[in-house]
Write a structure and sequence with these properties.
The protein is of the alpha/beta class. The protein has one domain. The protein has nine helices and eight strands. Helix 3 (33-40) crosses helix 5 (63-80). It is globular and about 45 Å long. The N and C termini lie far apart (42 Å).
Length: 230
C-alpha cells in the first residue's frame, strides 16, 4: 500500500457523515478515532483483556469495535506470538468477544469486513504462509454470528421477516475446545434481576444466569462452523 493510498483510506474512515439523508433517517454520525480512543481509555483495562465482552448496539462500520479488536490482538501477539496454536486460539477468543448491531446492511457488511481484515493482517504478518484458511473461516463464521443486521430498539433483525436478535456465546473449554450457546437479546435484557437496575449497575451478589435458546456440543475451536450441522 502506498502512502497516498493509506492517507486516502484514513480520510475516508474518518468521515463522520456519509450523507444528510442517512443522518436524517437514522441519526448516523461516525465517531472519530481520537474520540473513540479517549472513550475506550476510560475502560482501558477491559479493552486489553482478551476475553472481555463488548456490545455496540449501533456499531456503524465498527469504529469502536475495530479499535477494541486492535487492542486485544496486541495483547494476544505479545503473549502468544511464539506459538501459532496459542495465537490462533486466543485471537479467535478476542474476535468472539466482540458484538455489534446496526440497522443498515451496508454498515454490517463493512464492519465485518474491517474486523476480519484486522485479524487477517496481524495473523498473516506473524505466520505468513503457515497461516491457515481453517482459522480464517472460523473467524468469518463468528463475525457472521456476532455482527447483526438488526434494530437494538425493537430487539429484532431487519428485513422482510424480522426475528428476535440472537447472540452466540463462545466459551473456551479444556484448551482447544469451544462451547457455543445461543441467547435472545430480549432474554438477556428482560431478565427480572436486571429490569429495575441502571444500565451500568453492578449486580453485586445477584447472579444472572440466562437460559440459552440453544446449546451446542463442544467442538474444536477451528471447526466452530461445523457445530451448525449438529
Amino acid at each position: 500500500m502506498t502512502l497516498s493510498t493509506s492517507i486516502r483510506r484514513s480520510v475516508v474512515m474518518e468521515k463522520q457523515v456519509v450523507s444528510k439523508k442517512r443522518v436524517a433517517d437514522h441519526g448516523e454520525v461516525y465517531t472519530r478515532k481520537r474520540e473513540v480512543n479517549a472513550i475506550l481509555d476510560l475502560v482501558k483495562h477491559e479493552t486489553e483483556r482478551i476475553e472481555s465482552r463488548f456490545l455496540e448496539p449501533a456499531c456503524g462500520t465498527g469504529n469502536f469495535l475495530t479499535e477494541i479488536l486492535n487492542r486485544k490482538l496486541r495483547v494476544v501477539e505479545s503473549r502468544y506470538k511464539k506459538s501459532q496454536l496459542e495465537y490462533e486460539r486466543n485471537a479467535l477468543l478476542a474476535v468472539s468477544s466482540i458484538y455489534g448491531i446496526d440497522i443498515l446492511q451496508d454498515n454490517v457488511a463493512e464492519c465485518r469486513k474491517r474486523l476480519f481484515g484486522i485479524l487477517d493482517e496481524a495473523y498473516a504478518h506473524l505466520f505468513k504462509g503457515a497461516a491457515k484458511e481453517e482459522c480464517r473461516s472460523a473467524v468469518k463464521y463468528i463475525l457472521e454470528r456476532n455482527i447483526i443486521h438488526g434494530d437494538a430498539l425493537t430487539l429484532k433483525t431487519v428485513g422482510e421477516n424480522p426475528r428476535p436478535i440472537v447472540f452466540s456465546e463462545w466459551s473456551p473449554v479444556n484448551g482447544n475446545m469451544l462451547k457455543r450457546r445461543d441467547f435472545t437479546f430480549h432474554g438477556l435484557l428482560e431478565h427480572e434481576n436486571i429490569k429495575a437496575l441502571p444500565l451500568f449497575s453492578d449486580l453485586g451478589e445477584d447472579v444472572f444466569i440466562p437460559t440459552p435458546e440453544k446449546d451446542y456440543p463442544l467442538i474444536y475451536f477451528l471447526r466452530v462452523a461445523d457445530a451448525e450441522q449438529s
